[in-house]
Amino acid sequence: MSEVSLVLRSTRVVTPEGIRPASVAVTAADGRIAAVLPYDTGVPPGARLEDAGDDVVLPGLVDTHVHVNDPGRTAWEGFRTATRAAAAGGITTLLDMPLNSLPPTTTAAHLRVKQDVARPRTHVDTGFWGGAIPGNVKDLRPLYDAGVFGFKCFLSPSGVDEFPELDREQLRRALTEITGFGGLLIVHAEDPHALAAAPQRGGGDYAGFLASRPRAAENAAVGLLIAEAKRLDARVHVLHLSSSDALPLIAAAQREGVRITAETCPHFLTLTAEEVPDGATEFKCCPPIREAANQDALWQGLADGTIDCVVSDHSPCTTDLKTPDFATAWGGISSLQLGLPAVWTEARRRGHTLADVARWMSTGPAALAGLAGKGAVEAGRDADLVVLAPDATFTVDPAALQHRNPVTAYAGRTLHGVVRSTWLRGTRIAHEGTLTEPAGRLIERNDRP
Length: 449
Ligand SMILES: [Zn+2]
Hints:
This protein is α/β, with parallel strands linked by helices and 449 residues long. 29% of the residues lie in helices and 23% in strands. It has two domains: 4-57 and 382-435, Urease, subunit C, domain 1; 60-369, Metal-dependent hydrolases (TIM Barrel).
């Protein structure tokens, strides 16, 4: 134990075995957890003691769904601002989506451009998803070898011209190629034909917008994905699941041994269609926030394990793009810094614990991406830790958040759970709202066994 440099102690540490009093011993040399010891273990000579008291120590959150938009659309967001928001919100690892930046991450050369932009700016550990678009099948293997964690595709228009969707035949070709080298395809699952058949009223009325993105579109796309995953024995993941009607399909496929997983997002779990004010397009995202009854079923899907991740889908833009017309406003919800308190506020109301939240927001996403060193407070993992005051509350002021533009659907909400500090590989990177200089690393698939 002579190399232990830090002991972080709390009466409530969220470990894989449950929440208990413990002392987390960290070694400076590799920034990893050396051991999770009994609460009253003596502090080794030379080591520093941080006593979190009754605040809860959780594994750092792993957010596998973030649109950083850098380079190219840096008026919307950027690596510095996004990762500051992440660190302040208890996220220690972030995976960037391949679209909305220019270039999109659709070739190995584009990946290098993005890595060079991110490297000096990132406050948390950052990795990248690649993109599967029409015509880039030949680029997928080189991207995978260059370190992306898997590939994202759309089945309906993405919202940006440089990242087109795949049709059914293109999906098959991409999935065949990716499965050939053991990769993962993550999918924006809305069926374009079902969307085209839906009424498109436009305007500021949320019910009209909701009708334009029906559950049927998600259900059909998930059905297609299950069929293709089964046919090719492929590994697929449903991004930002909103339609609770798709849960029985996914659960049945999982029981059959189809390799399909699903995530949902804080906004689907905490906001409802019934409460969106007219013209409030900060609530617009695709697929959309649905009814309260749908939300109840999503929580059930988390409780029974059909859904294993809760990730932000932070997809910001400038305030002017949030026009009051739901048809034309940019679709995306900014929530990077708020995911943990938003989910915890609703989870506690529904009788869940912070061990559940850690499983959904850290362990699950780490497993999805194959991040063996992240996602749990246990010996051998990186000392990525969050100290949370779970009963403290705050009211969301968009202007006080770290992400670039002061737009968020959570404005004015009072949330439970204040992040006191965030630790990345044994170094405190955020403390009571103050951030250090960027200390994050770029991470790649298979960085460690
Ligand atoms: Zn997204």
